[in-house]
Amino acid sequence: MINMEILKIKEKFGDFYIADENTFKMGIDKRITSIISERFKNKLVLEACSGAGFTTISLAVFAAHVYSIEINQNHQQQAIKNICKAGLSDKVNFILGDVMNDKLLNNVPIINSAFLDPDWADTKRSIHTYRFKNSNTDPPADILLKTILRLTKNVALILSPLVDANEFIDIPLHELQRIYLDSKHVLYCLS
Ligand SMILES: C[S@@+](CC[C@H](N)C(=O)[O-])C[C@H]1O[C@@H](n2cnc3c(N)ncnc32)[C@H](O)[C@@H]1O
Known about the structure:
about 20% strand; single chain; about 190 residues; 7-stranded mixed beta sheet
């Protein structure tokens, strides 16, 4: 545990994992990841980005293997520990670096699906707009999607519920899922 109450983490992620303020906030609730991850059954999954590995754990339960890329070493260390705690280390390779780096992407073994969860944290500007086109997520969601679609068409992308859904109209044929938790629209999943 890093400055977080164990029970808060347990409630959201399902076990005594570790997180800090950032990775707790950005981590996706296990009730969501367990359902999304079923689509990746027996797949070779590229995950961008790991955070503290909460989605990685769900993906690894179903997938044949997960290659998970994360740019922040501190987040990656938490993810490695959490996957180990989940007993799933043999199903995940963690790669430290920028998922937008072609050289790094070219070195990822063959994959046939991808799960993308860029960081859409508020950038502390007084007015923050959540958008898909000309994206201000980290890495930019629109460019990330385009980049990964070159590797596989089997992609799920997580976005803020505050993005205007009209922004998705001219991307390749897709399903747009509105994900609710306790009657609150918490995420978009574009796949
Ligand atoms: C929303 S979090 C992922 C949360 C994760 N899905 C979970 O459930 O715990 C986004 C992560 O993207 C990482 N990130 C940002 N830019 C990146 C990049 N260019 N390449 C790889 N990872 C990046 C951040 O450090 C952060 O850990």
